[in-house]
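Hi there,

I know you've been waiting on this one. I reran it after we fixed the sequence typo, so this is the corrected version. Both the input and the resulting structure follow.
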Amino acid sequence: MSKSKYISAIARLVLVAALLGLAGGCASIVKGTTQTVPIASNPEGADILVDGQLVGQTPASVEIKRKRDHIVTLRKTDYRTVSIPVVKKIGGAVWGNILAGGLIGWGIDASTGAQYNLIPETITITLERMGAGEDDPGADGATRAITRLNELDELLEAKQISDQEYAAARLEILKQHFPELVPEELAGETSAN
């Protein structure tokens, strides 16, 4: 084999390897389908529940799937229970992936959830001590809102609602329950827009 044919064969192999890497989904490779979220509380030793499942005690770093919205609950005896929404937001890598890898790479990232970043990225909470005989009301409103967001995801995946209906309903839930998570440019929009 001549030197130019050898170099050409190597160049083709490199090109094929690069194309396979792009087809695998850029964010899936770079970020993965889970995100590590450090969680701390003052005082330490609070139970950490993700979507109602005990996963450890503070301080800890917890792996959370990027594909869904979650509720992280911190509870400790004699302290008020705190629930924090952890919601998905499309990451900046998506646009680069669409440009570099086209729709195939983006499709893989969308199906695995790798296209999302979870916010907040870090959770640090000071727990409030309860008074004598006080009941802990918990944070049921946040839990219901996260449940509704996940139900919307399922409706979209089953193609029972359009992308526009999904976006409008998601925006309304975020505005009602978690206004601090609504981007400023969307805060004035309504589902009629």
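Quick highlight: The radius of gyration is 22 Å.

Best,
R. S.
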